[in-house]
Amino acid sequence: MNIAVIGAGIAGASAAYCLARGGASVTVVDAGAHTASQVPSALVNPVRGQSGGVDPQALAGMGFTWGLVRDLEAQGFAVPHGQSGVLRPVPDDKARARFERNLPPDLARAWFRPEDSPQPLAPGWAHVLSLPDGGWLDGRALTAALLAASGARVVQDRASGWNAQEIHCPRAGRLKADAVVFCGGSAGVAWAGEAATHRMGTLLTLDRAVTQTPVSFGAYLAPAREGGVLGATFETPAPTWHPEALPLSSLGWLLGKGLRLTDLRGAQVTGRWTGSRLSGLTTGQQPDGTWRLTGLGSKGFLLGPLLAQDLAAQLLASRAG
Ligand SMILES: Cc1cc2nc3c(=O)[nH]c(=O)nc-3n(C[C@H](O)[C@H](O)[C@H](O)COP(=O)(O)OP(=O)(O)OC[C@H]3O[C@@H](n4cnc5c(N)ncnc54)[C@H](O)[C@@H]3O)c2cc1C
User: Domain FAD dependent oxidoreductase: where (predicted)?
Assistant: First the structure.
């Protein structure tokens, strides 16, 4: 069975990997631009944002992602990562109570007083939640390893149209397939002219990891393949997608959030990476017969691989039946 996947971010690369493992012959068409999954260091963090919400699939997703990283490393791919835990400082008792209400019983956790935090924090935090099964990974490396390990044929082009059985590409022409899976991310839905909610964010890359364990509230500090990052997805949600830019006011906001987390003295900014993520999870077969995994929001590496595996299983079962 031949399956064509549009998009080689974490959604498309995971889908290609899972479909190939299920016996399909996979072609991936990718424009090679505006790929949110190239994020230099992404958190695998089951407890989200400032609300402390936990997705029902967070634990399964986290376990699946770490399992994939181990499988890929066993196959010889290097995926810089640290399953080092994640620290979530919270500002007051109310925020702690909100977080506690959301924590499922089977999620490993410990609460610390700020002075006992495993990583030194700036003053002003009331409590620190430690999530020992979380961590960070190199988004670009994981995505590239999944794509390479899938053995998929990769066509570098921007699909201009598609239906359930074929993709049209300006350069590569018409690609026929038994099924088409769209994993276009933020840029892809914008190119397709779809209404959507896009959210830009930026990581400053740092010459050193300020904290060995990622620390996250409002923004995150994490180790990276080289040095570390300070980042967040924080621009105002927008109905249109714009190529990556970093307004100066955003730079000030991000540095302020970083200083609120911990002492940044001694760290140098070496660069920046800006991307856009897409809200509104859509997965499974669509009314037009195509398949789709889009709208992973800020949970691309927490849930993307697991959801791709579910999609691949459904797609392959639908063809076998
Ligand atoms: C600043 C920032 C920080 C983030 N931090 C985290 C984090 O800590 N943890 C976490 O889990 N997630 C994080 N995310 C979110 C995560 O990056 C995304 O959820 C995830 O990468 C989305 O993956 P995707 O495969 O859906 O889309 P993308 O990675 O955007 O990939 C889509 C691909 O499809 C291609 N494409 C689109 N349309 C077409 C077409 N018509 N033809 C051919 N190719 C096409 C694009 O060129 C692109 O390569 C962050 C995002 C940002 C912006």
Answer: 3-313
